[in-house]
Specification:
Helices cover 0% and strands 41% of the residues. It has no helices and 20 strands. The protein starts with a strand and ends with a strand.
Length: 157
């Protein structure tokens, strides 16, 4: 396990791509990305755990293109967009994170996003919704034991 300290990254500070990728990112600080803090795409996997992700221009973590990571016990905060954005058949398990102070949603599931579990997260003080699920997402989603409160446009849609 390596410690990645990303400061002022030009693109995503961390990119995970391809179905054979399965890294563990643990206890890192990812700060000030001009794009995503972390992006998982093209069937990528991996465990993203106990990181502090902040100051991103797009999403703290974006999951797309049939990727299926485990996102666990992270602090995802103070970004210009959503904390976690799941789209284009992105999957994953989102558990035990604290997601707060983002300019859009805490968690956004759009454009056929398909996460399996969102559980045990604290999602608060985001400017839009705590959890947003668009009608074009085809999800069979387990939402369980999330503490969602104090979000600007409401806690869920």
């Amino acid at each position: 396990q390596r410690r990645v300290h990303g400061h002022s990254c030009g693109w995503a500070c961390v990119g995970i791509s391809g179905e054979k990728t399965h890294p563990v990112l643990r206890r890192n600080r990812v700060v000030a990305s001009a794009d995503n803090g972390i992006i998982i795409l093209n069937k990528g996997k991996g465990i993203i755990e106990e990181n502090d992700i902040s100051g991103y221009t797009l999403q703290g973590i974006e999951i797309r293109e049939e990727s299926n990571p485990i996102i666990r016990r992270n602090y995802i905060h103070d970004g210009k967009d959503s904390g976690i954005y799941i789209n284009t058949k992105g999957r994953g398990t989102i558990e035990g994170n604290e997601i707060y102070n983002n300019d859009f949603n805490g968690i956004a599931i759009k454009f056929e996003g398909q996460p399996k579990k969102v559980r045990g997260n604290k999602i608060h003080h985001n400017k839009q919704r705590g959890i947003y699920i668009s009608s074009d997402s085809t999800v069979e989603l387990e939402l369980d034991s999330n503490d969602v409160h104090g979000n600007g446009a409401g806690d869920t849609n």
